[in-house]
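Board notes (copied after class):
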Amino acid sequence: MNNREENTKINFFKGELKQYKSKGLKEIPSEKVVEIGECLGKVLKEKNVKTTQIRKFLDAVRKIQIKFDKDNVIMLKPKLAYTVGRHRNLKPLMQILDPAIDAGAKDRESFKKLVHLIEAIVAYHRFYGGGD
């Protein structure tokens, strides 16, 4: 996938995720979560992102999963921004997760879909050959 195709797909998925901000991520079909996860996992592998870089963010998300709190979900955004600031090759992750975090903060079920999305990204990143 070249840069132009990559940007087109990322922007398409970003736009789709923004549609769920008001109604919550719980409304997104699981098939779409898998599709986005696969696309982003592949893009991140091509950008030589290490699995541990994504997993660290997933670990922060899982801590919130134990005790859901909307404010803590929203605070994932600056944590993600800091990570991307340190590792510029993670920018596509931020482009997708920024609107997903907004939609995932709506309620517990929406947050669950956010967790599934990040898990799909990690799984497909590994599938396409991403490593540590």
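Comment from the instructor: The chain has a mean pLDDT of 92. Residues 3-127 form one domain.
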